[in-house]
Design goal:
Layout (H helix, E strand, L loop, with lengths): L1 H11 L2 H35 L10 E5 L2 E5 L1 H37 L3 E2 L31 E2 L2
Antiparallel strand pairs: 1-2, 3-4
Length: 149
């Protein structure tokens, strides 16, 4: 039982788990902000454009026996709009992060080396090898790494 808790403690202390927990908390807070943006800012504008239609009030009522049941498709429309906004914002964040990553890695790309390859079978060989471990061909010269461009 002690080993189980040690493994659990190691799992929890991994950076990935903590990063995921932070992402979930921030995601929940971000969802509340997006819900407010959609319901308080965007939907009133959409309502004006569509002639005063409030999607939240849109529903299809189904009479069931003595009572009624309703399919609130307006809420679905609001949820789709919220999803599109969240997806767009995540896209912008990922795009910005990729751009920043590309800008910081430009200097490092010149230093990266490509593993040497056998001229006969084009498989990777170890630097300094005189024979290919894949096709067993004797290499014309000891293999050397090349700089990536």
């Amino acid at each position: 039982m002690k080993k189980f808790f040690e493994e659990f403690k190691e799992f929890i202390n991994r950076g990935n788990v903590m990063d995921l927990a932070v992402a979930v908390v921030i995601g929940a807070a971000f969802t509340a902000i997006v819900n407010s943006v959609v319901s308080d800012l965007i939907m009133p504008i959409v309502g004006v454009v569509t002639g005063g239609i409030d999607f939240a009030d849109m529903k299809w009522t189904i009479p069931v026996g003595a009572g009624q049941s309703a399919i609130t498709y307006g809420n679905f429309i609001n949820a789709v709009i919220q999803f599109l906004i969240i997806a767009f914002v995540v896209f912008l964040i990922v795009k910005a992060l990729n751009k920043a990553k590309d800008m910081t890695s430009k200097g490092k790309k010149a230093e990266e080396k490509e593993a040497p390859k056998c001229p006969y079978c084009l498989e990777e060989v170890a630097e300094g090898a005189t024979r290919c471990p894949h096709c067993t061909a004797e290499l014309p010269a000891p293999a050397k790494a090349t700089v990536k461009h």
